[in-house]
Design a protein that fits this description.
The structure is a single chain. This protein is mainly alpha-helical. It has two domains: about 45 residues, Arc Repressor Mutant, subunit A (Orthogonal Bundle), CATH 1.10.10; about 160 residues, Tetracycline Repressor, domain 2. It contains eleven helices and no strands. Helix 6 runs parallel beside helix 9 and helix 9 runs antiparallel to helix 10.
């Protein structure tokens, strides 16, 4: 008695759209590929695409929204005890795990973003959101300190810079080697520099600056600066987190 095997199940629509998009990006180029091209290859309608992705740029970074949500939840789940710099370093490792789950896709995306200036700018805005999530957590932990906001922002920036330095080195090597060890080493440098700072006696390494007036803020930006960059500059000047 012969049996016939069932045809392989189609991937979920979201995954199918990402796969179709990257196939076309590699074959034709990012700028030459339209949303209509993507949905035609994936055999779905335009409405289905925009149900999952607000723009063509978003299909290049399909996993970052979920990772940012996981990071925010991880930080919020902290009981307020423990060492805050260690907590944000552990949160940054969630991003590494996202990349390491699919090295081939991560390397392919890295190569694509290196070639497309618009995607590099978009990636910067994504990285900034991670940094702001870390800074917001640290600001809460350092609340009441005269240098709390400064300390939080500096440490968050250091964590992101260290993580990305190791991550991008791994991506440039086509995903070869142990990314986790490299990131652990980079984040260890951050912890060595900042982890014990709150417990030190003596003057703070972050002396408070002059008081900032709340009534007037003058912002200087290039006329052709992208909006996200202007917003970031404004929020940095205001000392706000997103």
């Amino acid at each position: 008695m012969s049996t016939s095997s069932a045809p392989p199940a189609k991937p979920p629509m979201r995954e199918a759209l990402v796969a179709a998009a990257f196939q076309l990006f590699m074959e034709r180029g990012y700028e030459q590929t339209t949303v209509d091209d993507i949905v035609a290859l994936a055999e779905v309608g335009r409405r289905s695409f925009f149900r999952y992705f607000p723009s063509k740029e978003d299909v290049v970074f399909p996993d970052h929204e979920g990772c940012l949500a996981d990071m925010t939840a991880f930080l919020a789940a902290g009981d307020g005890g423990g060492e805050p710099v260690r907590r944000v370093c552990d949160a940054a490792r969630l991003v590494l795990r996202m990349y390491a789950e699919n090295p081939a896709f991560s390397v392919q995306r890295y190569r694509l973003t290196r070639r497309v200036p618009g995607l590099r700018a978009y990636e910067l805005s994504v990285v900034w959101r991670y940094e702001r999530a870390l800074a917001a957590y640290l600001r809460g932990r350092f609340a009441g300190r005269t240098d709390g906001i400064l300390r939080a922002d500096v440490i968050a920036a250091a964590v992101v810079a260290a993580h990305n330095n190791a991550l991008r080195s791994w991506l440039r090597s086509d995903g070869e080697g142990d990314a986790e060890t490299a990131v652990d080493h980079a984040l260890g440098c951050v912890r060595a520099a900042f982890a014990e700072a709150p417990a030190r006696s003596g003057p703070s390494p972050f002396p408070p600056g002059p008081p900032r007036p709340d009534d007037v803020l003058v912002l200087v930006a290039r006329r052709d600066a992208p909006l996200w960059q202007v917003v970031r500059q404004f929020e940095t000047a205001r000392g706000e987190s997103s």
